Amino acid sequence: MKPRVRQVACLLDERFPGVDSMLGVAKRGLAGSGHPRGLAVDVVVNDDRVTGDAIAACAAAHVTDWDLDYVLWRQASLEEAGGEFERMSDRGGRTANHYDHVHLSFHNRSEPIPDEALTCDDGGKGGL
Fold it and tell me: Which of 34, 58, 71, 94 could disulfide-link to 105, CB 3.0 to 4.6 Å?
């Protein structure tokens, strides 16, 4: 896992006790997935929708600060700062459709995220 991805994963793990596990580097994912390159993390929440909503809202509020490429949650994707989550096509199952985990994909940058940007408020959105 790239250092900036690890920074955010650690922040989310500390901030959200409902996180079951984190999945990073793996030989899985669709073409273009950041997992094989260490540029993505799956924040597993299983059936805890409240925690997943809060994590997705936090990520949405920090797309620019964390230099996120995109966020996936509950069969929806967010691809730009200030944007809205948009419905995705059905990928065939609970995990593939991101109902049990929030997927965060990062741009490939080497510099760490500044400490002041490592916060987890939801920008007043209050969830999804």
Answer: 34
